[in-house]
Amino acid sequence: IVMADKANPFYPSVLECTLKLLQRKGLRGIVSMADRDQQVVDLLPQLLEYQVDGLIITSATLSSEMADQCASIGVPVVLFNRSIPGSNASAVCCDNRAAARQVAELFIDRGMTRLGYIAGVENTSTNRDRENSFFKRVSEAGLSKPARASGHYTYEGGYQAALELCSSEKYPEAIFCANDIMAMGAIDAIRTGLKLSVPEDISIVGFDDIENCNWPIYNLTSVRPPVERMVKRSIESLLTNQNPEDSVQVVETMAAKIVHRGTVRQ
User: Fold this and answer.
1) Residues 97, 127: Cα–Cα separation, whole Å
2) Sign (positive/negative) of CA torsion 116, 129, 224, 153?
3) What are the residues facing 43 on neighbouring strands?
4) Whole-structure pTM value
């Protein structure tokens, strides 16, 4: 199990769920932690020395060539909530497109017309799918293109991105953040840095529904992915994929839902 974004509470919770489900099946999980900017390719030689039966890669990127190399030596790869077009690496993902569309519709239904988006890491499929779908639904509604800033999936990035988006008098009425950590940074920036209110002045929606969303100081409305079902399917995919070199890429998506709390204006 390869993980790179340990600062985001969503992925440690994914790891905990994965290890528990593996233990129930009598399997052992070996965890490899990569630095945020480290390439998975740097870790693979050490991982393959353990003669692992398969790899689950979360919160990290893998080139299609490296995925195909793993397949060629009989090691199946499953990407958790990421996908690599054109490779042998299968993926189990939250339906990021449908979820982002629901967020746009929530804002539109509440009568908000000036919208914003705080992006995560630019080259990830999670951010790309969420952003494209959100912007598309806003365009379909005949609204102006959302203001955009990048927060790199970090609290500090979300804080600075919110300050950037709200630097003019016509700041967004609602902001969709590509994950919860950025949303929390944005909330703190709006309240302490800009002296505005959430949700009275600006509504905020995050993504992942981490445990911190329930904290009274945030009470964050967020998109909840079906983590346990996604983990189960990732493990099943590894166990059934005995000949990865001959397999074709399968990307499975599972529906998420918005958990309504207190950061969206009624």
Assistant:
1) 10
2) negative
3) none
4) 0.91
Task: Give me 200's structure tokens.
Answer: 């009275």
Query: Between the CA atoms of 70, 76, 79 and 83, what dihedral angle is there, to the nearest 10 degrees?
Result: 70
CA distances from 166 to 114, 169, 189, 239 (A): 11, 7, 10, 48
Distance CA 28, CA 45 (A): 19
Which residue is associated with the tokens 């060629």? 72
- Kindly report, residue by residue over 158-170, the tens digit of the pLDDT: 999 999 999 888 9
237/93 Cα distance (integer angstroms): 13
Structure tokens, 229: 């079902």
Alpha helices in 81-124 (DSSP H): 96-109
208-250 pLDDT, tens digit each: 999 999 999 999 999 999 999 999 999 998 888 766 555 666 8
- Cα-based distances in Å from 24 to 13, 17, 29, 129, 139: 17, 11, 11, 33, 47
Beta pairing, strands 257-259 & 221-224: antiparallel
215-218 contact pairs (CB < 8 A, 24+): 218/183, 218/184, 218/187, 218/263
DSSP letters along 226-263, please? Answer: -HHHHHHHHHHHHHH-S-GGG----EEEE--EEE--SS
In 3D, which of 167, 184, 153, 170 has the Cα closest to residue 61? 153
111 is written with which tokens?
């009568």
